Amino acid sequence: MKKNKLKTTYVCNECGATFPTWVGRCSVCGSYNSVVEEILQEKSTFKTYSTKEISPKPITDLKVSINTEREKTGFKSLDNALGGGLVSGQVVLVSGEPGIGKSTLLLQVASNFAKKSKVLYISAEESAYQVYLRAERLDSLNENLYVLADTNFENILSAVENLNPKLIVLDSIQTVYSQSLESPAGSVSQVKYVSGKITEISKEKGIISLIVGQITKEGSIAGPKVLEHLVDTVAQFEGERGYAYRILKILKNRFGSSGEIAVFNMTDKGMEEVLDPSAFFISEKPDNQPGSVIFPFTEGAKPILVEVQALVSKTFYPVPQRRSQGIDINKISIITAIMENQLKINLKDKDIFVNVVGGMRVDEPAVDLAVALAILSSYKNVPIPSDTAVFGEIGLTGEVRSVHFEDIRIKECKNKGIKRIIAPTKHKDSTLEIKDIRKLNQIFSLINQ
């Protein structure tokens, strides 16, 4: 007897769009090679649930009816980045490259929570003994820290119901599957279903959930975009393989401001928080060396001083090289073109290399002026004083524009011993020498001083 053929559909891993046949490029979001085949779920396999009577409450009564007390993670910088700590019922998605230290950090957080309440650590990638060995190395053993090594979501739900923990750590969402769906673990439908149920349980029982998410080769979170919309907080764990530091960047936060960062130093005993990142990143800055500039970088409420370096050398190729690390290469090309046009200098026969020391990734426009001054300093072979900080956005016509958070940038510079600020600002401070730059050609006078 001929068996019934399973019905399949094709789903985009990036946006969740469906197609009757396979396509190389998703017509909805434009991503390539993101469409995969999935088994079409029969409607009869879904369970129906009876609805319960719910009465809405006035918004003025919610303050006293909902517990908003923050739970501390054991890391002061991480608590600050999260807005003061974790909130009951909060779901946090932590993403990052393999081996970056996600599991290590979350195991340390779980151990800190276990000192006062029950914690369930769900390992869907490692055995329970592997988790024990890591916890022993990190000195994170605690009898309130329960470990479940399983990939079956129904077993996980049963363990949550029986244990009723205060904190859940799921490592990772892409390896967990539900028996109610026929598609494999990591598929769009599985990730959506599992993450949706975890969010539902967290809100209903007031459980804090920390979910580990893998990333694609492009650096985005693997799985559908709906995963980022379901959770309350999205945190990206970053770091260069050649450096011991790690940066946790808050990309989305419903219980605080986004853009905040926490810096950690990876050691054999786990993650150690860096309470003063500015001193950490500029501690080895060379004195009186051309091409080196201090830039106050910020995406949230806490600026970090980083060192921007540039090297300009004569090219031996028909087309000069433009290379950068930590800054978009297109930004370097635009700044170089503006400098040639406004400063009347010839960079067409020069190789230009720009680097943000320490591997920090800087995307904000305020770094434009620091890059331009570093390039000009190397080109003229004239050093910028070490007690000078630079920031400002450069327009295509050579104007230097004001940027956000200038007050807290200047305050951080002052706290770290900076005596001179070069930026487009009207800020007044008797203890600082502030150069108000409004046109790019004004930096010539600074180099020639």
TrEMBL record:
Keywords from the named record: ATP-binding, DNA damage, DNA repair, DNA-binding, Hydrolase, Metal-binding, Nucleotide-binding, Stress response, Zinc, Zinc-finger
Family: Belongs to the RecA family. RadA subfamily.
Gene3D superfamilies registered for this protein in UniProt: 3.30.230.10, P-loop containing nucleotide triphosphate hydrolases
Gene transcribed to yield this protein: radA
One Gene Ontology CC term in the entry: cytosol
Gene Ontology BP annotations: recombinational repair
TM region(s), chain numbering: none
Function description: DNA-dependent ATPase involved in processing of recombination intermediates, plays a role in repairing DNA breaks. Stimulates the branch migration of RecA-mediated strand transfer reactions, allowing the 3' invading strand to extend heteroduplex DNA faster. Binds ssDNA in the presence of ADP but not other nucleotides, has ATPase activity that is stimulated by ssDNA and various branched DNA structures, but inhibited by SSB. Does not have RecA's homology-searching function.
Protein name in the entry: DNA repair protein RadA
PANTHER family, A to Z: DNA REPAIR PROTEIN RADA, DNA REPAIR PROTEIN RADA-LIKE PROTEIN
Organism in which the protein naturally occurs: Sulfurihydrogenibium azorense
Binding site for ATP: G96, E97, P98, G99, I100, G101, K102, S103
InterPro entries: AAA+_ATPase (IPR003593), DNA_repair_RadA (IPR004504), KaiC-like_dom (IPR014774), P-loop_NTPase (IPR027417), RecA_ATP-bd (IPR020588), Ribosomal_Su5_D2-typ_SF (IPR020568), Ribsml_uS5_D2-typ_fold_subgr (IPR014721), Rubredoxin_2 (IPR041166)
Molecular function terms from GO: ATP binding; ATP-dependent DNA damage sensor activity; damaged DNA binding; hydrolase activity; zinc ion binding
Signal peptide positions on this chain: none
